[in-house]
């Protein structure tokens, strides 16, 4: 596992970070802004995010794609620009606004306001520095597109090894939407079909007269009004080693896909996503027990994305967030689940209950941020007042914020075939980890391996503690293997 430490910050300059295809010593001239006629009001998720922005922890999504071969910079730049035109919803910027207006609005542009594709400064630590930029330097909202694509060459003097690192302003877009745009760019670059693979065929759910309620029946009740446990902070003997840090810490690692029991009647008793949820629950419980903190109840926020993956995929923030609660049964098994190692029978029971919970949660439609998000974004009051109200309520609700967020992207649906540069050997996503939660897990399946990105606020963990937490997650995921009991 490789922990991301923070080397001195080096910004790309006009010579080393010029857009691909630009002469090395020619300063880049920004694109002239195009006239716009289309304005779209901010959706619910965008507006809530906009109200809660802070300079201390930028709201960035990091997407990192490793290719075995060398990318032609000019071809990539041309392909990415054409992909932006094919998905015009990404070519947007925030319209100028005053506090008394009733809406934030996106302006759709005909072309980028600035060059989104840059060649990262070369050097042995080029990738490490690009990762730091992905966590610390958020693409601005007032210039289209709110995305930056950096090209990092492992060895500029060799013919292999390229990393494409996208930094996304999460107020405007999420990772799956930007991955859709990158798949279009790959098709335009390499000429190969990058259509999404069909979703896996699963055995149909047993029909019932009424939809299952989350937490009903075998799923057991959720935590109710109990406050979710927070991950115990660990910033070393000398306190926070990054005072005033404007970005998160991050750990990227690769794990084997855990084994599952054989299918019965075409259905597995639980999915890899269920195992990841249980591993996350075990990780927090075991970590807190080591630090003398409460181990239950754990509540995990789980994004659910129902969008199609084809070229018609809506671009923006399209996931809805649902809480997966671990209730009284887990509290009864708390000692067994937080032991080292966890009790196999208790883990098996937790897997079965988690599978029932997630099936129920996914079957019930709902708005992205629930009723509260919808009410807070009604254009009744000016946005300045709504923003102050949103921030106040967010602070008041902090004790009831979920313990962590687990975003499981699953298998990448697109080949991401970049022709002579090859297909990805590794892909990582990471989601922002702002306080009070301060911790996110993001997983992707590539080549039969799980790519894990663990991201934390430096107010919660230092880099050494983040590495230990990542090792504990790996051990907890391994504890979910075995026959169903």
Overview of the molecule:
This protein has a domain at 217-405 and 434-478: 2-Layer Sandwich (Chloramphenicol Acetyltransferase). 28% of the residues lie in helices and 19% in strands. It has eleven helices and 15 strands. By secondary structure, the protein is of the alpha+beta class. Mean pLDDT is 84; it is low at 1-35 and 206-222. 45% of the residues are buried. The protein has helices at 44-51, 73-86, 126-136, 175-190, 272-290, 328-332, 334-337, 344-363, 370-376, 383-396, 463-478; strands at residues 2-4, 39-41, 60-69, 92-94, 105-108, 117-119, 147-153, 160-169, 249-256, 299-304, 320-325, 404-411, 426-430, 439-446, 449-456. A seven-stranded mixed β-sheet has the order 1-9-15-14-12-10-11, sandwiched between helices. Strands 6-7-8-3-13 form a five-stranded mixed β-sheet, with helices on both faces. Strands 2-5-4 form a three-stranded antiparallel β-sheet, with no helix packed on it.
SSE inventory with pairings:
Layout lengths: L1 E3 L34 E3 L2 H8 L8 E10 L3 H14 L5 E3 L10 E4 L8 E3 L6 H11 L10 E7 L6 E10 L5 H16 L58 E8 L15 H19 L8 E6 L15 E6 L2 H5 L1 H4 L6 H20 L6 H7 L6 H14 L7 E8 L14 E5 L8 E8 L2 E8 L6 H16 L7
Parallel strand pairs: 6-7, 10-12, 12-14
Antiparallel strand pairs: 1-9, 2-5, 3-8, 3-13, 4-5, 7-8, 9-15, 10-11, 14-15
Helix pairs in contact: 2-4, 5-8, 5-11
The whole-angstrom Rg is 22 Å
The arrangement of helices and strands along the chain is: EEHEHEEEHEEHEHEEHHHHHEEEEH
**Percent of residues in helical segments?**
25-40%
- In whole angstroms, how far apart are the ends? 32 Å
Task: Report the β-strand fraction as a percent range.
Answer: 15-25%
Tell me, what is the CATH class of the domain at 217-405 and 434-478? Answer: Alpha Beta
* CATH overall fold name of the domain at 217-405 and 434-478: Chloramphenicol Acetyltransferase
Give the count of helical stretches: 11
Q: Which strand order do you get reading across the main beta sheet?
A: 1-9-15-14-12-10-11
State the major sheet: 7 strands, mixed
- Mean pLDDT across the residues is 84
Count the beta strands. 15
Shape field = globular
